[in-house]
From TrEMBL:
This is MAGUK p55 scaffold protein 4b. It comes from the Eukaryota. Keywords: SH3 domain. Pfam families: Guanylate_kin, PDZ. InterPro entries: GK/Ca_channel_bsu (IPR008145), Guanylate_kin-like_dom (IPR008144), Guanylate_kinase_CS (IPR020590), MAGUK (IPR050716), P-loop_NTPase (IPR027417), PDZ (IPR001478), PDZ_sf (IPR036034), SH3-like_dom_sf (IPR036028). The keyword tRNA processing does not apply. SMART domains: GuKc, PDZ, SH3. Residues 61-137 form the PDZ domain. PANTHER family: MEMBRANE-ASSOCIATED GUANYLATE KINASE MAGUK. Residues 304-493 form the Guanylate kinase-like domain.
């Protein structure tokens, strides 16, 4: 504006936006032009009051221009003195000053008023609001480092009776990455949802407060068996069985179609206690509604990240994994599972399976060596961390499929699993795309998909999503198979070569992790 005043250019027209009503962008540009042409420099601030207090340091006049943005501050009343204070100023909001005592709003003395009445005064004002405030002399120095977290729960300020101001609140869904910009208040933090293009932060419950809220909700709900699954989602168990009779063009490890069947059938056979199996991960998932995350980019010399695929039975997890490995078996590989069953004539230990005794297997279970394991027809089957490590150490990308309750076993500092959730497309697309496909069920090895298979898949995906969505690094809707393969390949490449949000404990390992 200073330069404009100096140069005094003459506008071509006073009303140029009429020239181009159809093109929104151009219209915006032209109306900006008109604003300058008409010298319409909002806001016009009201004149300063004549009677300024003698002690200039003691009070300040703060003038804010109202627009569609919230004011960005919450106020509170001191119950004893009746004085009104700015309780909290929202980071990046209009009123980015904190702790000041408000004595007047638009000329009305507000001492002794209820906060709601003060808000009424503000709400009535048009254009500008003038506050007379007594600034606090000693402002707390906030020496905060940047904190990023992944939300492990959903939150909606509109449904929270306890939030100081629902309009200043920020809703989030589990899995969202939040930048915490202010943690000075023990109960209400300020945060931005990433990726963010707003300067203004929103109020969210602090970790302790959200934890308390979750516990209250949990206690107030009637018992549902699936809740125990959420709470003990780290019970890692599954049943794995012999390779299916299906043969492929090349031998590929771990395409055990019946393994997933078996998991379904024997779902509840093995449930090791949380404390003996994975105390640290259980504890943190139960107690931290926010998981601290950092941006991580794999160094080209580091081992690849493990790729773990999961999804409801029949959605196509194995098909996608098989096709990915087929694309380039020199790059992608599955992990060789262990079993206690006797080898068949053509089988070689270390190729189809590692064959081992029951005693050794039990020992491995005891020593937490398995990502997943289970029993089928009297034999034990399982995938170990060592088998995964072997593939990763060979420089290849290890691709495995897991049940959702094995997620915590692979989300570790060492494996740095990238979790891809394979989601069914909408029902009508399932019907169309699976017309010529075959499903394997508990009773049939291969039969065409039926309507109830699709319904079951939908139902299962809803359950998986409601319990585990926060852990998914990528969601792949398996609609057209070819497209899904391309998407999978792209996601895997990104997982290895592009920066990703990962748990901070992977980068700064703690005693627990
Ligand atoms: N996008 C797709 N379009 C059409 N058919 C598909 C698609 N994805 C997978 N299929 C087919 O659906 C069937 C089930 O797939 P797949 O065996 O991979 O399921 P899964 O998720 O591993 O489940 P399960 O563990 O029960 O075997 C297979 O015949 C597969 O070829």
């Amino acid at each position: 504006l200073q330069r404009y005043l100096r140069d005094s250019p003459t506008p071509a027209l006073d009303y140029a936006s009429g020239l181009s009503l159809q093109v929104a962008l151009r219209f915006a540009l032209l109306s900006a032009h008109d604003t300058v042409a008409q010298k319409d420099y909002e806001p016009v601030l009201p004149p300063m009051p004549d009677e300024l207090p003698d002690d200039e340091e003691a009070t300040r006049i703060v003038c804010l221009v109202k627009n569609k943005q919230p004011l960005g501050a919450t106020i509170k009343r001191n119950e004893i003195s009746g004085e009104i204070f700015v309780a909290r100023v929202i980071h990046g909001g209009l009123a980015d000053r904190s702790g000041d005592r408000i004595i007047e709003v638009n000329g009305f003395p507000v001492d002794g008023m209820e906060p709601e009445q003060v808000i009424q005064v503000q709400a009535r004002s048009q254009g500008t609001i003038m506050f007379k405030v007594v600034p606090i002399t000693e402002r707390p120095v906030h020496n905060q480092t940047m904190l990023y977290v992944r939300a492990m729960a959903d939150y909606s300020p509109q449904q929270d009776q306890t939030i100081p101001c629902a309009d200043a609140g920020m809703s989030f869904r589990k899995g969202d990455v939040l930048e915490i910009v202010d943690q000075t208040d023990a109960l209400w933090w300020q945060a931005k949802k990433l990726p963010s293009n707003t300067a203004c932060a929103g109020l969210i419950p602090s970790a302790n407060l959200l934890k308390r809220k979750q516990r209250e909700v949990w206690w107030s709900q009637p018992y549902q068996p699936c809740q125990s699954i959420i709470l003990c989602s780290m019970y890692w168990f599954a049943c794995i069985t012999a390779p299916s009779s299906r043969t492929f063009n090349f031998f590929s490890v771990g395409f055990r179609r019946s393994m997933r069947l078996c998991r379904r059938r024997f779902h509840s056979t093995i449930q090791p206690s949380c404390h003996t199996r994975c105390p640290s991960s259980c504890y943190s998932a139960l107690n931290s509604p926010y998981e601290e995350v950092v941006r991580y980019q794999r160094h080209p010399q580091d081992a690849h990240r493990l790729i773990a695929l999961l999804g409801p039975s029949g959605v196509g997890v194995n098909e996608l994994r098989r096709r990915l490995i087929e694309i380039n078996p020199n790059i992608f590989q599955g992990a060789v599972p262990y079993t206690t069953r006797a080898p068949k004539g053509y089988e070689e230990s270390g190729r189809e399976y590692y064959f081992t005794s029951r005693e050794t297997f039990d020992n491995m279970v005891y020593n937490n060596r398995f990502v997943e394991y289970g029993e089928y027809k009297g034999n034990l089957y399982g995938t170990t961390v060592d088998s995964v490590r072997e593939v990763l150490n060979s420089g290849k990308i290890c691709v495995i499929d897991i049940e959702a309750n094995a997620i915590q076993a692979v989300r570790t500092h060492e494996l740095r699993a990238y979790i891809i959730y394979v989601k069914p497309p909408p029902l009508e697309r399932l019907r169309e795309t699976r017309q010529d496909s075959y499903i394997t069920t508990n009773y049939y090895v291969n039969r065409p998909f039926k309507e109830e298979d699709f319904q079951e898949m939908e139902e299962a995906s809803r359950k998986i999503e409601s319990h585990y969505w926060q852990f998914f690094d990528h969601v792949l809707v398996n609609d057209e198979l070819q497209d899904s393969c391309v998407q999978l390949l792209t996601a895997v490449r990104k997982a290895q070569d592009e920066p990703q949000w990962v748990p901070a404990s992977w980068i700064r390992p703690t005693a627990e992790s």
